């Protein structure tokens, strides 16, 4: 590069300097993958159904939290879920997609046509909805997206209302959708976005919504050591007095395929699973050391990146972690790691099927309900 203001071998992007738990966890997984995604900005052209469904689900859950976990809030939660889902999934769903209110009207019509008085209770609504979807999914192509389809999300809301109707009496909503930055030392911050801060008789806690496809101890047990959990707790401790804090709750919703809806797995209805987490002062100190260590490693690699050149035989930074290549559905960069000793030669041209997408945690500031910059507030 001949740019005197840019010491890096490729043009810089402002998102490079915004680090949150997601990006740090990606770096932990594989520094080379981090480089492809966050420095080259490569992202698949195809929309990610799991991210779309997760985003729609978060919007619906936020509506339920703010408006009360009760059947009267269902229509609003469904409307906002479908709106987000179909706005984001423009390239996958087809012309058959219903507009949110039409979808809801059809659902309510089917319930009233059923003439079933029990449908006025949450349990009745759930059963009536199942009947409705059984018919609906016969013709609707969103079936291919199950169990991350709008119908599954709606069934989860109904099930959630049945299971946690008492939440509105026992828990107070303090904040939803909190975006911010929290210091980890004199110079560096972690960006975060918290789904909700709630309060019950034992104190304040963060609630983090997650979807899962199978209940397991492995899923339940993986949270306490995650960077993300410590980040949220660290922020909570900087927002409120320590004595008032209870901890954090993973609010998990299992989206099973349901036999009644034509799924191919013999599971029953949706399951809500909550995992409470609290950390002692010593464990929070261990989290802080860990985060600083991983941040140091990111910065060390960024320094090495300055000396890298497309003409080098190999790229001597952001090392490959071969143990992560087969995780989940397999790493999308595998063909390139198998071929290229120095990916810098190809950095400016995303491969077929990829686009440039400078996703940044800071983008979340625009849509957050509350914004806090705790490094400034605690000076
Ligand atoms: S293929 Fe493996 S080594 Fe390459 S980026 Fe993906 S996880 Fe890392």
Provide key terms for this protein.
379 residues; alpha/beta; Trna Endonuclease, Chain: A, domain 1; 6-stranded mixed beta sheet; two-stranded antiparallel sheet
Q: Count of DSSP E strands?
A: 8
Which cofactor or ligand species appear?
Answer: iron/sulfur cluster
Strand content: 15-25%
How does the major sheet shape up?
Answer: 6 strands, mixed
Structural category is alpha/beta
Q: What count of structural domains?
A: 3
Number of helices: 13
The overall pLDDT average reads: 84
- Strands of the biggest beta sheet: in what spatial order? 6-5-4-3-2-8
Shape: globular
Report the helical percentage: 40-55%
Order of helices and strands: HHEHHHHHHEEEHHEEHHEEH
> Over the alpha carbons, how many angstroms does the gyration radius reach?
23 Å
Tell me the distance between the termini: 39 Å
Q: Identify low-pLDDT runs.
A: 260-268
How would you portray this structure in words?
- With 379 residues, the protein is α/β, with parallel strands linked by helices.
- It folds into 3 domains: 14-43 and 289-366, no CATH class; 49-167, no CATH class; 171-288, Trna Endonuclease, Chain: A, domain 1 (3-Layer(aba) Sandwich), CATH 3.40.1350.
- 42% of the residues lie in helices and 16% in strands.
- It has 13 helices and 8 strands.
- Strands 6-5-4-3-2-8 form a 6-stranded mixed sheet. A two-stranded antiparallel ribbon has the order 1-7.
- It is globular and about 65 Å long.
- The two termini are 39 Å apart.
- Residues 260-268 have low confidence and may be disordered.
- Bound molecules: iron/sulfur cluster.
- Iron/sulfur cluster binds at residues 30, 32-33, 320-322, 324-325, 331, 333-334, 337.
- The site of iron/sulfur cluster has 12 residues, from helix 2 and helix 12.
């Amino acid at each position: 590069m001949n740019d005197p203001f840019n010491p890096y071998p490729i043009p810089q992007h402002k998102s490079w300097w915004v680090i949150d738990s997601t990006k740090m966890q990606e770096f932990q997984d594989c520094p080379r993958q981090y480089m492809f995604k966050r420095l080259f900005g490569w992202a698949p052209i195809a929309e990610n159904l799991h991210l779309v469904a997760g985003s729609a689900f978060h919007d619906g859950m936020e509506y339920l939290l703010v408006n009360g976990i009760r059947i009267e809030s269902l229509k609003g939660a469904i409307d906002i879920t479908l709106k987000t889902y179909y706005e984001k999934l423009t390239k996958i769903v087809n012309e058959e997609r219903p507009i949110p209110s039409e979808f809801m009207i059809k659902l309510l019509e089917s319930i009233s046509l059923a003439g079933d008085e029990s449908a006025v209770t949450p349990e009745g609504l759930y059963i009536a909805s199942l009947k409705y979807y059984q018919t609906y999914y016969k013709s609707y192509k969103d079936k291919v997206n199950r169990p991350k389809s709008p119908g599954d999300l709606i069934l989860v809301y109904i099930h959630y209302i049945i299971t946690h109707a008492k939440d509105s009496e026992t828990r107070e909503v303090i904040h939803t959708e909190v975006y911010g930055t929290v210091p980890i030392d004199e110079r560096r911050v972690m960006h975060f976005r918290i789904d909700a801060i709630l309060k019950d008789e034992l104190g304040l806690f963060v609630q983090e919504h997650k979807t899962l496809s199978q209940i397991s101890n492995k899923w339940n047990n993986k949270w306490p050591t995650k960077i993300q959990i410590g980040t949220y707790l660290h922020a909570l401790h900087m927002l409120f007095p320590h004595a008032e804090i209870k901890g954090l709750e993973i609010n998990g919703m299992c989206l099973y395929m349901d036999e009644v809806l034509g799924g191919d797995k013999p599971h029953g209805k949706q399951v809500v699973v909550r995992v409470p987490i609290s950390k002692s002062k010593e464990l929070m100190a261990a989290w802080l050391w860990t985060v600083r260590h991983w941040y140091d490693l990111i910065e060390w690699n960024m320094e090495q990146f300055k000396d890298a050149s497309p003409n080098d035989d190999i790229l001597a930074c952001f090392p490959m972690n071969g143990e992560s290549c087969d995780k989940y559905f397999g790493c999308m960069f595998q063909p390139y790691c198998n071929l290229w000793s120095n990916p810098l030669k190809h950095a400016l041209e995303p491969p077929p099927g990829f686009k440039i997408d400078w996703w940044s945690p800071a983008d979340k500031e625009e849509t957050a309900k509350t914004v806090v910059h705790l490094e400034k507030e605690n000076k």
